[in-house]
């Protein structure tokens, strides 16, 4: 059932009223909500996977189970196991002489209220229910706006949420761009958006009118640096797995490779070998996902055509051939030494196109990364610690995986987020709990008249001067 833009504000008002009326809620209420979310996913895993496959045209049950169901269930359980520790108030130090006279300070992590979650289509369950688990852990209510590109999955999610949660706890707003635009303009207490950098800018502009704090999980062009100490066979296997999963439709997918010039042929051979091993028959393979829409598949074809027209060497790796009734199944396409003016080097690819640029020195590769927008992920392959640290210490990215790609997002105790144009804020780990909480400072003053003792209560006199002199000692 589609939600109209006019229905959104009453939904928000109902949630906020329920939130305020229920304060303070015990942690047991938060646990119950997360447990219901876990049960929703576990009990309906097959239906959710079937819906995702229907929306994509083809998406392997195993992939959906791993990336959208199991990963999200495990993260929700992680939130459950850490909730008590996260929510515990922190004692903070009190400066002299306040502490010596009995002053006390603590930090309480309190729920913000109602959090909006704008989730994307590429991992429609994970990127809606993952943030939701931590939003609920922080004690908030939530409104979800799933993507219109996965209508079947959104429909199933909305029905299951309605079965497990009251609308004043968690609600789903289904609809197209008009609903998303109205949703991002609501006066939430916090707004989470996962999607493109371009759309993220629009979401942040809409949220700014209400001074709504935002968590923006965006994308960007995540580079892979192949060091001279890299095991090329292993690198090829892991790059292909990360690049071809979900047909490359991953915000963290390797977007381009930086390779020593004299190792380029070896890297391409390793990629070809890995493709033959993992996808021996590419286009008729049920394990390989399709591009989500005809328009997005055509965009990728145009990107390859642009590379060819721009003089780049294009290598198609398609075990079993490229003939397929499904025109949205695209092969891994290597673009060798592309110019920076090509679309594949200017835009986030979000598909199975992989540019390779060569370098002579590691400094050259690092300078190239640093000349571009800061990426969501950065990947280094190599066994030389000095080489690795040179890359890590001289670049900036949202996160890093060493000797693999994408995997840092699976480390539940690490915050996941971008930096600069690849995102603002983070969730996962204790940092995510704090992202969705208000850190409320509480200072308790002792009975002693501290201001009077220090001489800083009018009328000022000699005691005040002595206090200032004492405090300003070097």
UniProtKB/TrEMBL annotation:
* InterPro entries on file: Ald_DH/histidinol_DH, Ald_DH_C, Ald_DH_CS_GLU, Ald_DH_N, Aldehyde_DH_dom, Aldehyde_DH_NAD(P)
Q: Which GO terms describe its cellular component?
A: cytoplasm
Q: Where is the active site?
A: 217, 251
Q: What CDD domains does this protein's entry cite?
A: ALDH_CALDH_CalB
Sorted alphabetically, the keyword list is: NAD, Oxidoreductase
Record flagged with keyword ATP-binding: no
GO BP field: aldehyde metabolic process
Domain of life, per lineage: Bacteria
**Domain spans labelled Aldehyde dehydrogenase:** 4-442
Molecular function in Gene Ontology: aldehyde dehydrogenase (NAD+) activity
Please give the Gene3D superfamilies that the UniProt record associates with this protein.
Aldehyde Dehydrogenase, Chain A, domain 1, Aldehyde Dehydrogenase, Chain A, domain 2
Q: Which family does it belong to?
A: Belongs to the aldehyde dehydrogenase family.
Protein's recorded name: Aldehyde dehydrogenase
Q: Which organism is it from?
A: Paraurantiacibacter namhicola
């Amino acid at each position: 059932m589609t939600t109209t833009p006019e229905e959104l504000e009453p939904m928000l008002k109902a949630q906020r009223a329920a939130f305020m009326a229920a304060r303070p809620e015990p942690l047991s209420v938060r646990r119950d909500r997360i447990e219901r979310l876990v049960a929703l996913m576990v009990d309906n895993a097959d239906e959710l996977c079937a819906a995702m496959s229907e929306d994509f045209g083809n998406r392997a049950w195993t992939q959906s189970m791993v990336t959208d169901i199991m990963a999200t269930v495990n993260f929700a359980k992680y939130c459950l196991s850490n909730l008590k520790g996260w929510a515990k108030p922190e004692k903070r130090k009190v400066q002299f002489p306040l502490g010596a006279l009995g002053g006390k300070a603590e930090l309480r992590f309190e729920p913000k209220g109602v959090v909006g979650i704008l989730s994307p289509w590429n991992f429609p369950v994970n990127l809606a229910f993952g943030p939701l688990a931590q939003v609920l852990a922080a004690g908030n209510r939530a409104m979800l706006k799933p993507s219109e590109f996965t209508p079947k999955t959104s429909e199933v999610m909305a029905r299951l949420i309605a079965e497990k949660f009251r609308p004043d706890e968690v609600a789903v707003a289904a609809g197209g761009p008009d609903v998303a635009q109205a949703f991002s303009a609501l006066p939430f207490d916090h707004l989470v958006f996962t999607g493109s950098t371009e759309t993220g800018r629009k979401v942040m502009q809409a949220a700014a009118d209400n001074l709504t704090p935002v968590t923006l999980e965006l994308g960007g062009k995540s580079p892979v640096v192949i060091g001279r100490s890299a095991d090329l066979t292993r690198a090829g296997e892991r790059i292909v797995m990360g690049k071809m999963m979900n047909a490359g439709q991953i915000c963290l997918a390797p977007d381009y490779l930086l390779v020593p010039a004299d190792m380029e042929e070896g890297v391409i051979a390793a990629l070809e070998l890995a493709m033959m091993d993992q996808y021996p028959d590419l286009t008729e393979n049920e394990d390989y996902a399709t591009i989500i829409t005809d328009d997005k598949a055509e965009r990728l074809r145009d990107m390859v055509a642009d590379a060819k027209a721009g003089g780049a060497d294009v290598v198609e790796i398609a075990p079993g051939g490229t003939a397929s009734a499904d025109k949205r199944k695209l092969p891994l396409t290597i673009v060798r030494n592309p110019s920076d003016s090509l679309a594949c080097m200017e835009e986030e690819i979000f598909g199975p196109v992989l540019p390779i640029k060569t370098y002579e020195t590691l400094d050259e590769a690092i300078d190239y990364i640093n000349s571009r927008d800061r990426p969501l992920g950065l990947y280094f392959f190599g066994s030389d610690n000095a080489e690795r640290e040179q890359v890590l210490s001289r670049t900036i990215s949202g996160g890093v995986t060493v000797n693999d790609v994408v995997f840092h997002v699976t480390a539940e105790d690490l915050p996941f987020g971008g930096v600069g144009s690849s995102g603002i804020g983070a969730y996962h780990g204790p940092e995510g709990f704090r992202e969705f909480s208000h850190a409320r400072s509480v200072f308790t003053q002792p009975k002693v008249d501290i201001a009077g003792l220090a001489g800083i209560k009018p009328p000022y006199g000699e005691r005040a001067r002595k206090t200032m002199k004492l405090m300003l000692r070097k």
